[in-house]
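Hi all, long-time lurker, first post. I run a small reading group and we've been trying to get comfortable going from sequence to structure in the token notation. Rather than ask abstract questions, I figured I'd post a concrete chain and ask someone more experienced to write out its structure so we can walk through it together at our next meeting. Sequence below, copied exactly:
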Amino acid sequence: MEPYRRPIEELPGDPGRLSLEYSLREPLSGRDDVAAPDEWTVSVRVERFRNRTVGGVVGSLTLYRLRQDERFGPHPWEGAEQYDPEFFLAVLGCYDLGRGGYRREFRDTVTSPDGDLLALTHARLDPEWRGFGLGPVLASQALWTLAGGCGAVAVDLRETGLTALCESLGFRRRPRPLGHLLDPASEVARDAREEQRRRYDALVDAWRAVHGG
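-- Answer (accepted) --
Happy to help. Here is the structure in token form:
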């Protein structure tokens, strides 16, 4: 059995009944916002269990996606600060402030430097679900669902307080001024994804063994 910080008996329900719900926010205020980043809210939901009060949304993640396409000028990060300070800090180091586009350090670091850029800014999980390794499992699934076509996922660990979470997902400190990035095409990222899948399967099996499911 996987080592957990809390006894399996304290898990409030079957983790196999957790699901992720993706919501995309797109502003419709006019032509000035055509270059707005895609703002994703990923809600962690759990089915309401029979004879239990547990149910509904028990966690969430917030991510932004900057698309490298015809909608953007040379500085797609310029509007980031008005959406979220953590988002702005996470992506600012990836862009060349003078000539526009990605910095040379970014292009030299990631496998696919011409893809979009995804940024993780917030992640939370209700206290009763913590201590069983579910945070990295859920974040990993959300990142891999939204990271298709992205050259990297960025996070500003100075502000978000997500250091332990992001390290378990394969984020690594990159040369200054890039900060912490996850390269979806890297072996480190793929190995981390498989590890989180294995941990989730083990947790589900452990809970069902205790509850006779």
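A couple of things your group might point at:
The beta strands are 18-25, 38-46, 56-66, 116-125, 150-155, 172-173, 180-182.
The helical segments are 80-83, 85-92, 104-109, 134-146, 157-160, 163-169, 187-211.
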